[in-house]
Amino acid sequence: MERVLVLTRHGQSAFNRQNLFTGWRDPDLTERGIAEAEAAGRLLKREGLSFDVAFTSGLVRAQHTAALMLDAMELTGIPVVRDIALNERDYGDLAGLDKDEARKRWGDEQVHQWRRSYEVRPPGGESLKDTVARVLPFYVTAILPRVMRGERVLVAAHGNSLRALVMVLDRLDSDAVATLEIKTGEPLVYRLAADTTVAEKRVLPRDDAGG
């Protein structure tokens, strides 16, 4: 039994390109983001991977990424589960603001705390700790049981919702997760042991077509 779980951050979005805080705002992928998603699918297919089910968030950039990846893998008929539990971290009042302008307004250190710390919430938004509290129960109840049954599972989601999952899978503490970066369109391939811990992890670097 393989117990395969693949996590992939969505391709570049319009807000990523414009250096804006995104959160629960709902921009679609850029041309580069589309290329990243398609390349991720091709890369997984070349690795001999396939999927029985895909999970994604309630936001279009993740849904579009999942669809493009599955199309590239010729897996358009598999079930796709969409749930807001996998949404990006809610940046609250920062959503839609330019990151450089935010640094000018509140200072580098404050913005860094909002973006990278584990417990500090941006005004009106979620901390990473809050995001973990939202993502982890969904993982335990909806995703993990399918992996443990031997289904091959793809999760196409967001930088911070995936940081929450990687924190749990890789057993990272709050200091380690603060420096964790997950690149757009770069698959993380996990194989789980019978006790649900990680038996193997591989990062599949994006090819040139993925940017």
UniProtKB/TrEMBL annotation:
Keywords of this protein's UniProt record, alphabetized? Gluconeogenesis, Glycolysis, Isomerase
Site residues (Transition state stabilizer), renumbered to this chain? H158
Chain residues that bind substrate: 9-16, 22-23, 61, 88-91, 99, 115-116, 159-160
Pathway(s) per entry:
Carbohydrate degradation; glycolysis; pyruvate from D-glyceraldehyde 3-phosphate: step 3/5
Q: What is its EC number?
A: 5.4.2.11
Active-site annotation: H10, E88
Isomerase: is it a keyword of this entry?
A: yes
Alphabetized Pfam families for the sequence: His_Phos_1
Top-level taxon: Bacteria
- SMART domains, sorted: PGAM
Q: Which reaction does it catalyse?
A: (2R)-2-phosphoglycerate = (2R)-3-phosphoglycerate
The record's Gene Ontology biological-process terms are: gluconeogenesis; glycolytic process
Specify whether Isomerase is a keyword of the entry.
yes
Molecular function terms, GO-annotated: phosphoglycerate mutase activity
**Quaternary arrangement and interactors, per the entry?**
Homodimer.
In which family does this protein belong, per the annotation? Answer: Belongs to the phosphoglycerate mutase family. BPG-dependent PGAM subfamily.
Q: What does this protein do?
A: Catalyzes the interconversion of 2-phosphoglycerate and 3-phosphoglycerate.
Q: What is this protein called?
A: 2,3-bisphosphoglycerate-dependent phosphoglycerate mutase
Which gene name belongs to this protein?
gpmA
